[in-house]
Amino acid sequence: MRKILFFDSGEASRGIVSALAELVGEEDIVSETYSSASRGVASAISEPPSAIVIIDEGKGKMLGDMSVWEVTARLARHMSTSNIPMFKIDEQQLKEIAQAGEDYARQLFDKLHNEKKRMLLVAEDASVRRELCTGLDSFYQVREAETAIGAGTELLKFTPDIALISYALRDDPSGGFMFCESLRSDNRFDALPIIGLGDFPEDKRYCLDAHLKQPFTLEEVHNTIDSLLKKE
């Protein structure tokens, strides 16, 4: 019997379980709820579930002994989550599911699963790209590039909803600034939210929507992304 794993302090509603069972195409399925994040992660690693749901109560609230993003990063590092649907829903969405029932839950999870926001990640440092992709890939469609030229090639193939761009790019003598400025001068991307990573000088940050100076945490990255996408 397969399971759906919940990271939450309460009990999973029948509407959520039924909607997810339909999404993953399994009838004989049970739910397990963990208020202790470390126990939930250990369970997922030892016996991979059919789906994972993380309830994010916001305002930096912990899932027992870990933050929301520590949970996702640890899961991604220790197990292959690429074939396991992972969802993050907030308290408002949880209330709407409780009020509207299973049909709403089905529509919500289907949308979260099939309509992930598209992200462009540009960083020369392979370890930075690897760390960010590990923590972001479950929730976004991530295209990565290590140079400005490579990023330009990716932009011919897709249109991102948000971009993360490092200041250290070997083919941009301005350190990533010229590439950001070129995006702002292109009417296809002039409204694209851009997060600058690393040592962007203050006088070069006007082309950015947000800036994260290293060392930054995965939680800071996620919170910044969430904040910018909610403004759209």
From TrEMBL:
An annotated GO BP: phosphorelay signal transduction system
Domain (Response regulatory): residue spans on this chain: 118-229
InterPro entries given in the database record: CheY-like_superfamily, cNMP-bd_dom, Sig_transdc_resp-reg_receiver
Gene3D superfamilies tied to this protein: 3.40.50.2300
Domain Cyclic nucleotide-binding stretches: 58-115
Protein name: Two component phosphate response regulator
Originating species: uncultured microorganism
Lineage: unclassified sequences, environmental samples
